[in-house]
Every structure is written in structure tokens, then in C-alpha cells.
Amino acid sequence: MTDAGLDLNTINRLTSGKLGTFDVCCPLCSSHRSTPANRRKKVLRIWHIERDFATFCCVHCGEHGHVLDYNGKPPDPVKLQKARAAAAERARIHTAERLSLARWLWSQRLDPQGTIEGILDYRARVSSREAYVSPTRGAQGNALKTILAMPFALDGESGETVIEARGVLHRIVFSIDRIRREPKIMHTQEASPVKTGTRITVRWPDSACSNLDDAENRFLQIAVDFTWINPHLTLSVDWKRSTKHLKGLIAASNVGWSKWRPSDPTSPHWYGASHLERLMAAYIAYEQERNLAPRTVREFISEFRGLSGSAKQKAVLDAVAASRALLAGFFGSGDHVNTDAVVKLLAAMRERARPIKPKDLGIIGEDHLRARFETIGAALESFNYRKVEVEHDGLPYLIEFAFGYCPKSKNGRRIITGINWSASVGGNPFRNLSTAGESLDSILTEQRAGGNEPIVMVLHLVCPRVEHLDRGKTCIAIPGRIAATIVDLVRSGTKRWCDQRKAEERHERTKANRDDRLIHFKVHKATIKDVAYEVMRRAYMAASTNGTLPANARQIYYAARGEILERTGKDNLDFPVFLPDVACRLRAGNRRRLGHHLGRPRAFY
Question: Which domain holds residue 156?
């Protein structure tokens, strides 16, 4: 007996008559799936805990319920006990296998000791991920190396930095080798209470404390800027100096917001032939330097988004005749690179993997930026948000722009710019928007949005592959098409402000009306006709007792007059003014919707 689409015989066939918990293909919906891989997915879970009773649930079609054999004979207690013991043993083995797999994956992680040793190697000035294309992977020098050496660079004699993670404290001290006259690094370890996460402490030298005082405003502004372009970020600031103690908390506006993570696989569409060649060479060099087992071409392909399935991997490998080839052999040697094979491999990977849409990278969103604008006193009526999603040369670009007028601001213009959810530290990165030397600053000056204007502006760009023009990441190279898009976005977003400022330049008295034109321009004054069209049906239903009694125009007028006056701001509404609106409503074909009978209908025409 059953209350769903499966019976006990089907359950016994799917579980081979065994007791326990089983994941199997659903006989109700799996045969209707579009691909063979989906038809083989084990989407039905069965809890077969008794010989004559079982429950089930399918995560695909939603079918669930229980089956029970009311007419069956009572089971043999001895056999039932053996079946339950066998089910428990299978569950124990399954749990042990999953635990073993988890421990193996944990053992393959990057050892923290190796991480520390890697960042202390100052012979390499580029990131270990510079060949890997992703919006959340660094392509320049290792930023942590800069932080470690910062105290020593400021003091000139010694500097100390402490890194704590997973119960280990790494104390790193930079000093000078007096004989060789070169920096010397000492690394010691001890126990730490930090078990989860990472804590980095930089011992700022006393001789450089004045630098902190000078950079206080800029440092705090940069920290706050990160909350503008990261909706999920909660920032706690504790700035304690001898003369002041600043402490504050900026809560996240959307803790569930997500963006492209470092763990998300890269896309073959983000690579050119030279970029893929560089990535393959980096993998091969890494394995050879550490005497690791060489990876195959299949393993290399599986790390790309959309190519994790065995069927797609096989199709790509067949296209380049590299079914069992090692990556090093396929790539070539140190003297010669098999460029043709790399080009064919990239084409085959692109053919079988879908491009990433710009919106999948992570949109900051209008709601979050509106909330941030409100916190600094921007008039929300002047808030202008624009977003552009564009693809160029296989790369997705997501550009977001927001502009607002701060009527009570006395600090001048505030600009928040960012690349891939990182706030700009060294200034404006959009300094090269055209071959004529046009930059964001020049465009804002042209739009009358100079440094002394009471405005706030946000410009953020997301792209998997960003080319920086300097090691400090203060300026980026932008393709012409994308640069033109940014220019158009900024100009259209600041157009209303620019028109207002130009009007003020022509007529000084126009400045007195700035608030009315920028803040109240969106307030639409509803007309009597607009409101009458909207409330007519409700007014008729009220006058006719929900359509059960006749109602003439004057009765409808009395029922609608209060709401019309309130929404239009009028002091009085005469019946002769209201009557044409009723007639127009009727002529529009709404007579039947208004009711089955209207008193003296010809009076309306």
C-alpha cells in the first residue's frame, strides 16, 4: 500500500531488498531528463528501515511519501536484526570513506609553513597566481610581502610582523646584516590562540608614528570605501592614538551577497593563446620545482568552468588527440613550445564551455549604494544609478556608476573608485580613458563636477583580466570600447548636475533653485484626471454597495472626492470638473467594469 507514486515492490527492486538508506535514480522522473548524465543522477533517497515499510523523497520531481505492506507477514526477528546490523555496517563504512576522503583533501591543502616560506622569498617579485585569470586573483606582486617589509622600511634598522593562523604564531623580524649590509629575515614560531581565520599584526615603529597621524583621514576613508563596494562586508575600525580614540562599526547591508570567489574555476574564454600558454608553463614549473607528480592534460582541463564533466573532457581531448598525454609532454619543452597544439586546445575548450555573463561576476546593486549615499547625507531624490554589462574580446565587463548631490556637505566632492571590489588606494585608476589623454578627472571637470562641488560619486569596474600600468596598481589599461562606455556612463549619470551648474554660470540667481531642480524634480504632481481614472472603480463600488445598487455620477463624485483632493493637493473639487473625467472613463470602454447600471447615463455625454 502506498500514498504516492511508488510501491513496496519498486522500493525492494531499487534497494535490492536490503535495509538502510539508499540514493538511487528516480523511476518517476529520471527517464524524462534531457541528457544521459542527468538521467543517471541519484536524486531519489530511500529510507528502507523495515521489511514492510519505507519512506522516500525525490529532490528533482518532489515526489515523496511512504509505502507500507499491511497484509505482509510479521518479519522474523532474527533476520530483521541481521538486516539492521548489515545496514548499520554499510552506513559506518560509508561514513568512514567520506571521512577518509575529507582527510585526504585536507592533506592536499597548501601547508601554512610553505605559505610563510613562500612570502618570505623576495627573489620573486610577481604573484604566484599571475598566470591565473580571475577577478579575485592578484596579477601583480604579492601584497603581503609589502606589508611584512613595511616596518623595516620605515624604521631602517629593524621591523617585526606577526601572523597567527591555525594555532601557530609566526614572528617575522627584519634586520640588517652588518657584514653584508643587506636585509636579514628571522622567522620563529610559537603557539597562538587563533584557531580560525588569520590575524596579522604589524609593529609600527615609533619613529614613523607621525606618518600615521598624517595619513589618518586617508587611511580611514580607504577602509570605509571597501564597505561601499562590498555589500557583505562588516567593518570594525579601532583607531587608537595618544590624542584620540576612534571606534566604530559599519554593518553589512546584505550579508548574503555573493561575488566571484577565488575558489570559483576560471573560464577558457578569459584566455588568449599566450595567456593559456603561460598558465600551462606555470603549472609545469611548479610541479618540477617541488618534485610533484606531473598532471595530465585531462586534469588541467577539469579545472576550467564548464569542463568538469567527463563527457566534455573526452570531447576536448579527442579534438587535440591528447587522451592520455601529460601536460608537460603536450606543452613541449623549454626550448620549443607546441603553440599550434595550445591554440587547438583553447579553441576546443571554448567551444564546449559557455561564456560567463557579466552579471555572474557580482553586482554591487542599486539598493546597497543608495543606502550608503543616504548615510553621508546625499539627497536620495538626486541619486542616479547606472549599470552596463558588456563583453569584449571574450571578457565580461561589469561597470556600475552612482551619483548623488549632498546639499549640506562642506567637504567638497567625494569619489569612490574600485576595481574588482578593491577600493583604489593610490588615487584614480581611470586616468587613461582615451588616446587623447582623457581621464575621469577631466571628464568630471567638463561635467562641472570638480573637487569643490558637494557631490558624491562611485565608479566600479569588474573584469577577470585587468592590466595594470604600474606595480602599485594605481592605473589600469582599458580597451577603447570599454573606455568609451565608461565615458558615456559618467556623462549621462552627471548630465542633470552639469545642466544645473551651467545654468548657474549663466544666471547667478539659478543657484538659489538648485535644491528644487535637483531634489524635487522627480516629484510628479498628479492631475485630477490621473487620480480619477485610478479611483473611479473603487468609488463606484463604494457608492453602489459593491455593485448591488444603482449609482449616479454625483454619488460617485462624493465617494471619490476625498482621495482625489488628498492626492492632488487641491483644496476644492467641483462636480462640473469631475463630471468630464467620469464621462471619459466611460467612453474608454469601462462602462461594464463600473457596474451594471448608472443613473441617467445620457447625462454624461
Answer: 119-210
Question: Which CATH number belongs to the domain containing residue 414 in this structure?
Answer: 3.30.230.10
Do 90 and 203 lie in one domain? The reply is no
Grid cell, residue 310, equals: 567527463
DSSP string, 280-334: HHHHHHHHHHTTPPPPBHHHHHTTBTT--SHHHHHHHHHHHT-SS-BHHHHHB-S
Round to whole Å and give the CA distance between 373 and 357: 28
The burial of 491, by beta-carbon neighbours within 10 Å (0-12 exposed, 13-18 middle, 19 or more buried), is given as: middle
Q: In terms of pLDDT, which residue wins out, 371 or 601?
A: 371
Residues 342-376 pLDDT 10s:
999 999 999 999 999 999 999 999 999 999 999 99
184 within some domain: yes
Read off φ and ψ for residue 196, nearest 5 degrees.
Answer: -120, 135
For residue 485, tell me if it sits in a domain. yes
532 Cβ neighbours under 8 A, 6+ residues apart: 560, 564, 578, 581, 582, 585
Under a CB-based contact definition with an 8 Å cutoff, are residues 424 and 382 in contact?
no
**Which residues fall within 8 angstroms of residue 50, CB to CB, at 6 or more apart?**
19, 75, 80
Query: Does residue 244 form part of some domain?
Result: no
Counting the structural domains of the chain, the total is: 5
Could you tell me which residues are beta bridge partners of residue 551? 598
Helix pair 528-543, 575-585: axis angle to 10 deg: 80
- Residue 405: partners with Cβ closer than 8 Å, 6 or more residues away: 378, 379, 382, 454, 455, 497, 518, 519
